[in-house]
């Protein structure tokens, strides 16, 4: 175990209250069989951004004995989710692979003198949340060896945050949710079903995209909480156009419509815009016996375009979104498919510490647009200010 006395993370300011206390590599409890030692990345795996997907779980109460349970059950879970304990291999000309060599994932422990409520009740999303995320970065996967990392942060109030960060190259949000659910079940003494990792036959290498870009605009990031009672009101309002719309459909469409309206106000004219909703394709996989636990990037994008003022109406946006989501009919091979809305994941069994009965949205807009967006009558009507 390596003891670290000072947190060093690029692009972040001073962290006087946050200290990394230990760092340990957790390896699978059993070795990966020889026939599973190589996991080939599909075309979709190569196309997704080289980023980590972080999820933060807050708990009001935490005891020291829970740490050993987390580590032991994580080791057992990595036996089933073996690519996460491997390392990327990126040949010069052929498709990249994961060498499932059981080298393990990083497990950080940290202490934070803040209160749990300082994070839970915070409306502005700023760098303080990054303290909880291990080595979160945007960059080529060749520069970051670990495919998964965990950070356990204990707060002064006795609560804790558990952050799981997974490489998007290994899988989508559904894969991550399945991994965390599996881990939680093992920690409780259960024996969950093992996933099926879909290894590709792709031999081609696709150039990586640079996500950093050169946009110098200043952005604002805000949290908005939409309670179920308000979302149900919104569903009833649009039910005439789209039969039984889901909460995700109405909320995604509301945010998109209001953000386009804000951009139009700032620029003085309609800004052509696209909304992309990631659709899980597992249930449409042919010849896949257990689609619910198929692991990898198994999704496609449903795109909604706004080119005219009349298309900004909420009913119109929801109608277009529903049509795009229902359009894909079948998938024959993992290389033919393009994430998943995390709200769809069945993760309530993890017993989150402070959970709002509704949906929380993190919205990032140019500062002038955000000032208009957060005062939009529809946003004010369906969101709430109280984060408790």
TrEMBL record:
It holds the Pfam family Transferase. SUPFAM superfamilies: CoA-dependent acyltransferases (SSF52777). One of its GO terms (molecular function) is acyltransferase activity. InterPro entries: CAT-like_dom_sf (IPR023213). Gene3D superfamilies: Chloramphenicol acetyltransferase-like domain. Signal peptide: none annotated. Keywords: Acyltransferase, Transferase. Belongs to the plant acyltransferase family. This is Uncharacterized protein. It comes from Ambrosia artemisiifolia (Common ragweed). The lineage of its organism: Eukaryota, Viridiplantae, Streptophyta, Embryophyta, Tracheophyta.
